[in-house]
Task: inverse folding
DNA sequence: AATTTAGATTGATTTAAATCATCTTTATAG
DNA sequence: CTATAAAGATGATTTAAATCAATCTAAATT
């Protein structure tokens, strides 16, 4: 079978889901024979909310936004996903549909693996099943935190938190490329794009950050953290 | 060992977690020998957020509120749990702490089972592990829905939704006992208690519901649903 | 380079909802 | 059976944040 796979084999892949380390070599081989790689350009949709879920998708490289399409076309960005992330959504085990959409932010390399294969492995490899449970729990935990943040913090706190999250967990630097538009930044923090613009401006005025259209530099991390926590 | 267990044996228990049906008789016996029943009076705390998590708790009867303690003592009620519910929280697999609190609303009978026992079973019984994954997914799915509802619906919609949820999923009747205070109803729908009072009043004025201090009757389900969906 | 278009910015206005203050009712304890 | 506390109700006020309406880039396309 013709394959455009960039990664020669799961055996040598270091960017995929950590839980695959728990597979036996036979199981890994099974996955390797049934996987399908694809690349996506920025803006392209990788998973469409509501469509039938047949594959789990693993990000090998690049960044993607995980978002839900809510009422009257309003989106809410749940997470920014990077390499080693399993993308599937809880709907898979509820109604066999993807419960969120995923779109590429940067160029993305991803690996598709059918749920049939994964289910079979879950049924024979308890360690792998446990890893699944841990993955689900971790995501659920983050979701609970997000719920609290979105419902209890004020706009300044939510935006500060988002900036710190980019800096700390994704780019590991005080200065980073802002890959989201103001609109998307609003979908991530549950506020109108105009509010995003205003608050970014305020943070600049107070010399806490320096922001351009497509970049952010954190100047006063302590102040930003205080705003984020007290928000 | 002395036991106050009300349920004589897991074998004959019909109110516990459905996933236990997947246990072999030996496994069920293991659970039965290591379980511990307890009852709680209304208001008593069953799980305290942040405390070390060593047991999964299963509701056998009664209703409980699952809530997170957020910033400056503000609570958010995540769910109203009834019999057959597994209570543990995603924190269990993240930092071995309960990530939410649970308090009895009515008199409650509950069963405590150590995570050690459950982990052991997960490691030998893949069907049971799959059931765990399904349970986590179902809860995560509900959480996503709640996030959308809380962030995108207006107060009227959120309150209407909560009332319909009580009617449809918990009491299975148009008329039911309102077990939550106005304050708690606010914590469930993310609004101030005064707003709850006001909106309940409005719904009464429009003859959509009839509400007393401790009861609600839905008079016009269609209108309530419209408010819930459009809200 | 000129034109078009999408995104960003800014200020003015409106709106939803919280907060505050007060009063009333209901429940609880002495 | 009162006294006290707790919860509920109501109106006035404030606040946060959305919306609206222009205007202003910056990027893409012709």
Result:
């Amino acid at each position: 079978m013709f394959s455009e796979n960039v990664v020669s084999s799961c055996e040598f892949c270091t960017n995929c889901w950590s839980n695959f380390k728990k597979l036996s070599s036979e199981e890994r081989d099974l996955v390797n024979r049934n996987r399908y790689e694809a690349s996506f350009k920025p803006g392209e949709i990788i998973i469409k909310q509501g469509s039938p879920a047949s594959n789990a998708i693993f990000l090998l490289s690049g960044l993607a936004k995980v978002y839900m399409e809510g009422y009257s076309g309003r989106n809410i960005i749940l997470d920014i996903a990077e390499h080693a992330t399993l993308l599937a959504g809880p709907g898979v085990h509820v109604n066999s549909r993807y419960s969120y959409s995923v779109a590429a932010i940067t160029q993305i390399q991803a690996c598709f693996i059918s749920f049939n294969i994964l289910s079979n492995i879950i049924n024979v490899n308890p360690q792998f099943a446990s890893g699944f449970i841990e993955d689900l729990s971790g995501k659920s935990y983050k979701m609970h935190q997000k719920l609290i943040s979105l419902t209890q913090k004020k706009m300044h706190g939510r935006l500060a938190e988002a900036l710190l999250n980019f800096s700390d967990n994704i780019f590991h630097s005080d200065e980073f490329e802002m890959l989201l538009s103001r609109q998307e930044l609003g979908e991530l923090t549950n506020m109108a794009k105009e509010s995003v613009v205003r608050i970014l401006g305020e943070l600049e005025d107070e010399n806490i950050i320096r922001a351009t259209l497509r970049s952010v530099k954190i100047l006063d991390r302590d102040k930003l953290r205080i705003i984020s926590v007290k928000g």
Notes: Chain B touches chain A through 41 residues (CB under 8 Å). DSSP finds seven helices and eleven strands in chain B. The radius of gyration of chain B is 19 Å.
